[in-house]
Queue: 2 jobs
Job 1
Amino acid sequence: MGTHSPSPWFPCWRINFDSPIESEKEIALHLDAVSSDQSWCLVGARSVGSERQLWAAWSATRKKELSEIMSARSVEMEFILHLAGTQNIDLALKRAGICEGNEQAWLLHLPAMNPKGPSELDWRELEHEANRLARSILAEIKPLRPSMEMVDSEQLGIEKLSIHELDLLAHISLA
């Protein structure tokens, strides 16, 4: 098997909440209300394993959005459906969403799509907005990037003894 070139960083930030989540719905609604646009979402800390996984879910989401065939009413929820490898919203939230008692999560920015791929990212502005949003939901950004060691494959619905990045990418195609 050949070597892969590294993927560009996906705009994501690992966050630790000041205290365990009491209501995932309240946090999601608050994030939606205070974000500068509708391109920010939270996903479970154990649902992200690689930059490629995030870009693949992003690509599938934006393609469905452009084709006007999304299963969900929002881009954020459509992204979670792809990340979870399902079209069932309740199951997707169990697999890849945040839930009561969580102390960590991923804060994601879903870039807009242009004909050549993702829009150019202003990392300084994104970092500023991510910090502002994290503070608003009583969380702190941690200096971590996605890695395979962070994934809970059983929670995502991938039934294997070991998990590889290709498993995560194939799982997205199930949605």
Job 2
Amino acid sequence: MATWLLLVGCTSTPLTPEPPPVVFPDSAVSFRLHVQPFLRQGCAFAGCHSSASRAGGVALEEYAQLWERPGLVIPGVPEQSLLVQLLEGQLPHLPDLRARTTENQRRGVRRWIAEGAQNN
């Protein structure tokens, strides 16, 4: 009986639907509208880089947290920013971020950094 009750509560579908993927514009990328939701959805809410878990000492929920790790974001220089290198698969990361993100998302983060990585 106890086993049966335990299994009745299980479901293969999540209780809350997964939010749609973040789509970045071609210009004027906003931290609050694009980058933050992207980082929260894929990095922080996944349980790895939340303020509580801080995998590798990195949290990615708030703008100020991006500056806690030197080199993670270098405004105006996306190719030297560790975040871009990780997203594009130039640096190892588990899970593979290049496989888990779209070209639009990688380009959008790169564009936001190229535009100065503003808290906008």
